[in-house]
Fold these 2 entries.
Entry 1:
Amino acid sequence: MKTREEYIESLRALHLNVYFMGKKIDNPVDHPMIRPSLNSLAMTYELAQQEEYKDLMTATSNITGKTVNRFCHIHQSAEDLVKKVKMQRLLGQKTASCFQRCVGMDAFNAIWSTTYEMDEACGTNYHQRFRNYVQYCQDNDLVVDGAMTDPKGDRSLSPSQQEDPDLYVHINEIRPDGIVVTGAKAHQTGSVNSHEHLIMPTCSMREDDADYAVSFAIPSDAEGVTIIYGRQSCDTRKMEEGADIDLGNSTFGGHETLFIMDHVFVPMERVFMCREYQFSNMLVERFAGYHRQSYGGCKVGVGDVLIGAAALAADYNGVPKASHIKDKLIEMVHLNETLYACGIACSAEGKKTKSGNYLIDMLLANVCKQNVTRYPYEITRLAEDIAGGLMVTMPSQADLQHEEVGPLVRKYLAGAKGTDTVNRMRILRLIENLTLGTAAVGYRTESLHGAGSPQAQRIMISRQCNMEAKKELARQIAHIDTSLDKKSQGK
């Protein structure tokens, strides 16, 4: 397994075609806008090297029997699924940001079982190809960006009905040695920090959409790839000279990109679905289930930091013993632990697939993500309530450090007796970062739309809840004679 330093150096070897704010970035590794997100992802390597975290951060490969980073692992038990969630909570606690490696792990496990069942039904050999690819990623400890979401264009139309066919990733040409593809994937978390991109269809396909039913892997610097770096709230603060306090979290962060492929050639050994449209729904649902489970870990870890920051803000404001403050903090903990409980529950109820890896309980995973679309918003509201208005109105770090007005800032922003003004400003900026700033992209908005927007989970809950079985339970308890209903219908 790679060390943190080896991972960073491996990124320098890539020749990425990255643009940000109208300019090409020649050195993404050391760019001040990108480096905090790289630091977050590097934590997945750093903790895997530390003895106290190895049980969560590493696993034994079912392919080679070697120790691998859990982010490259194929889940072999319900215990693996539980450890995944615990690992994600740990990393959220350590970075207070998105650590960007979950999507690849979830794509691995969804494609693993789907290719097995596709081969069984269609006589293809995708599963062995994918098995070889997973081993390659494990052997080299690679970061793989799972890519599912297409731009989608007019969402009332299917992929094949779009005016511009490139709004969904599609096959241009099938050759004996591979395929040629064009299209884009949007909202790609950690894309610039990834060695590989693992592409999946974004929705259930019909026969007319067969050219869009495609899954494959390409290096992040493949010929024909362009990566456009996305904007985040307050992101240009990172560009300010000596930026520290105003950032809230100066060390860690996240990022998303628009990942564009223009007639990219994919060797056949890296193709894992090619026009098998009838299996697109299975892949989409399984990936979504795994990723909705993930939110019961990563968002909870970040929530732990936000709760701690709110409690510290109360200390600096001199109100830690106020009953309404205590009650708000308790509510924040209650909501956060409810999310965690859902993540653990859907993992503990996981079952073995035909391919041998374990799939979470789909109903509980969707319940987990449905809660994640709501609870982080209430947690942030309570944090902002406890922090007070100063969080969004206080002067800048430059004012604090100014020879003339700096002493005034320290004097008038002083908090409770025995506390330091600078520390008070730091904790308020951290809360701002998590609730309104760069980290809010991953904690709040991604909680709403990531792994499918709220309605997607409600559709899955409707499908998975087995309402007819619940009706039968009620019939039995109430001694319902269904034959009477049938007679009434006939009248």
Note: The chain has a mean pLDDT of 97.
Entry 2:
Amino acid sequence: MPISFLLMVNKQGQTRLSSYYEWISMVERSALESEIIRKCLSRSELQCSFVEYRGYKVVYRRYASLFFIVGSRLSKDGNDNPENELGLLEFIHNLVETMDKWAGSICELDIMYQLEQVHFLLDEMVMNGHIVETNKMNVLRPLDLMERESQKAESMYR
């Protein structure tokens, strides 16, 4: 499975969004998340954005006050993971651009107060750990339709 998890974290290390694409127990998930977040946040801007940690290839990127972290499990047979680090870095950039197009300029508060829409947007791009859509307009179209229907329903009940 290419992507095992995706995290959005602020500079203080607080998780604002987490999405897991493989089963990990809550105890293990909590420990793994805190260790990876601590490891990514402690690295300087001069260090590369790729880390191998506890059987995962971790790719992260900072945008303003948010860190976007993607983890992909390394293969058990010792061969390298088929997922490309630069491809994951480009996916993170594409995700941020898509969120910027949706919210104006994405920030931590957008994620916190519109978490359902952010999950919906992410689910349009990633399914079962596989990147299925990268076209911004195709990702945003269902969200726009949903918002228009919601506004239409609200105006009917006024």
Note: The mean pLDDT is 88.
